[in-house]
Amino acid sequence: MNFDDDSLVEMLRRSYFAVDGLWFVMAEEMFDPDQALELDERVWKVMPKIQARKARQLLRLRGSSLAELAQCFALKLTAEGHRFEVSRTGHDELEVIITECPWLKLLEQSNRVHLAETIAEHICVTEGDTWASEFSEGIEFNLESRMCAGDESCHFLFRRAGD
Predict the structure, then answer these.
(1) Other C-beta atoms within 10 Å of 91: how many?
(2) Does 108 have pLDDT greater than 90?
(3) pTM score above 0.85
(4) pLDDT at residue 128, as a whole number
(5) For residue 139, which of 25, 128, 132, 144 is within the disulfide window of CB 3.0 to 4.6 Å?
(6) Three-class SS of the chain
(7) Does residue 139 register a pLDDT over 60?
(8) What residues does 83 pair with on adjacent strands?
């Protein structure tokens, strides 16, 4: 059987989101919500390392520049189905503006949007920090704004330390 790439991507994307959501719900049932979130945060300290390393391999990148971080992070966001823009605001700064987040959509669809801001504070920050450290210990990450808190977009800022 032959399947087109769009069907394969959508199947894998849906499975990826579903397993994350199911895993979290099961962890909440087994533990309490705070423990489930703590466990989820531990997972998202490792997952970006795996993603960053695979993105580097797929894109055949070897360095630790902000430009390479931009390419790899854009691959991750595209694979997950985000709408976003990446720009360099200076030689030592990378800005990612997300205007549509599939994770937030899933929380809305599952009537769990009340968890969104807490999840963003823990998971999105952890994920951004891990992506930054995977490219250089000299890159800092800040989550400047987030849709989960009512902002129009999520604003990820990666900056070389000391700037």
Answers:
(1) 8
(2) yes
(3) yes
(4) 96
(5) 132
(6) CCCCHHHHHHHHHHHHHHHHHHHHHHHHHHCCHHHHHHHHHHHHHHHHHHHHHHHHHHHCCCCCCHHHHHHHHHHHHHHHCCEEEEEEEECCEEEEEEEECHHHHHHHHCCCHHHHHHHHHHHHHHHHHHHHHHHCCCEEEEEEECHHHCCCCEEEEEEECCC
(7) yes
(8) 100
Torsion (CA) 115, 134, 85, 78 in degrees, nearest 10: -70
Q: Round to whole Å and give the CA distance between 18 and 24.
A: 10
pLDDT at 53 over 90: yes
Over 70: is that where the pLDDT of 22 sits? yes
- Strand-pair partners of 90: 93
What mean pLDDT value characterizes the chain?
92
Average pLDDT over residues 54-62: 96
| Number of residues written out for the chain | 163
Enumerate residues 6+ apart whose C-beta is below 8 A from 64.
Answer: 135, 136
* CB 117 within 8 Å of CB 55: no
Q: Quickly count: other Cβ atoms within 10 Å of residue 105's Cβ.
A: 13
Residue 5 has pLDDT above 60, yes or no: yes
- Beta-carbon count within 10 A of 144 CB: 12
Query: Could you tell me the two tokens for 17?
Result: 């989101």
